[in-house]
Amino acid sequence: MKKNQLFTIRVALTVALGGFLMGFDASVISGVVKFIEPQFDLTKIQLGWSVSSLTLMATLAMLVSGPISDRLGRRTVLKYAAILFSLSAVGSALAPNFTFLVIARMLGGIGVGASLIIAPVFIAEISPPEKRGQLVSFNQLNIVLGISVAFFTNFLIVRLGSSEASWVETFGIAEHNWRWMLGLETVPAVFYFFALFFVPRSPRWLMMKGKMDEAKVVLRRANGEEKAEVEFRNINESMASGSDKKKVPLKELFKPALRLVLIIGLGVAVLQQITGINSVFFYAPMIFEQSGIGTDAAFSQAILVGLTNLVFTVVAILFIDRLGRKFLLGVGLAGITIFMFILAAGFNAATFSLSGEVIETMSEGIDKVKLYEIEGEVYDSDVKFKDELNEILGPSTVKIYESEILAGAIDSNPWLILIGILGFVASFAVSIGPVMWVLFSELFPNWIRGLAISFVGFINSLVSFSVQLIFPWELATLGTAGTFLIYGIFGALGLVFVLILVPETKGKSLEELEKILVK
Fold this sequence. Notes:
Strands 1-2 form a two-stranded antiparallel ribbon. It folds into two domains: 3-199 and 242-348 and 415-504, MFS general substrate transporter like domains (Growth Hormone, Chain: A, Up-down Bundle), CATH 1.20.1250.20; 351-411, no CATH class. 78% of the residues lie in helices and 1% in strands. The chain is mainly alpha-helical and 519 residues long. It has helices spanning 3-15, 17-27, 29-39, 44-72, 74-93, 98-126, 132-161, 166-170, 177-183, 186-195, 203-208, 212-223, 225-241, 259-274, 277-290, 295-319, 325-348, 356-360, 368-371, 382-393, 395-409, 414-429, 432-443, 449-477, 479-501, 510-517, and strands spanning 351-352, 410-411. Helix 12 (212-223) crosses helix 13. The chain is globular and about 80 Å long. The chain is built from 26 helices and two strands. 52% of the residues are buried.
């Protein structure tokens, strides 16, 4: 492998560690919700808020992180993001109450928003065109790696909590399991901060600031001598054509020349989240518990979600520059639609009934006499069954023992549900997960890229926030089957949108794409 290729890979991997922190920070909460709901006596909306508060701040951070990075530099903004990740991890782990926890999570959300926007832009601006798809996808690879590590460490902490080892008791892992889950993020956050000192500044940003000599040095290290000269001329020409747009107002985005790329960017941004991916990533153990497999199995199957996400993201990276962005989007969205319908069918077919034998095996904290009131009754809806449980046992008791009661009452096909979730995650990971960020880095011209990606990223994050916030409420109100059916319908609509409007961008330089898409 050539020296310049090794250089760009090293830079891309280092910058993409921000994606790892984002993925870990986002998904570690999936293991926490089960424990904080009874501890802080949360309502379903409060539970959703504990998850989605991070995304809300990420949404707001996306509005400003692009323009700030245009002013201060991509690398500088990522350093600040690493500091915020560290402070958030420590604050979340030490949170004495629900309000403090939410504030600490929101602090981390600022880091999430900044890294989610700036890391792929940084990588795209330093990558040669023929490798840009793969290198930008490193960010998504690190996101899914962070998700996988979060699922694994959550499972490990839960298992360690049941250990009788003296050091487990000394460190309070059983008593403070969710605090350990949140606090572990401090280690990679500190590492990321120091690793950023060993990457160069973006060559396109350097040229925007008039630092031509330094930009040439970086371009030569990334592309080689000959290609660096071509890239330098192309960037110069692009900057010259937009030289009067040093400070770009938001209204520029809505001018006719950018209408097509803005519609595509917004459509893909909404589509990535409206199909429910963060409901799965942020609530995976909760979803698996709805199938009646119990807490330990739910945490272990969540690891399968992370591994599936990781494997198929690697597949996407290997083929995104061969098969193209549009092909992967089409295949992935078809899969998302099919597997969401499978999930809806699997949960819709489930029934719930408690026998006397099962009731007798329940934990001591459950009033078994009250459960005998519904012995033998069959419920064809999880909503009806949970409403009945809340009526006879009380919401506080159900919050603690819901998983155990569901496991004893449900009659379903858990394998069908597992296949549906893993198939959905695989379809997402091979398509719109990584492809969206590649498209964002390619669609918009140099002079407005920072602002444009901040705007469409803001919309993407706003939809994500809404999905996360209402998911517990949806499960309680619409039922699991109804919730996944809605996601499947959105997937089908998204497939039509991609086939009609999204162009193929592989193999073209950023400046070539600007000439094609911006009229």
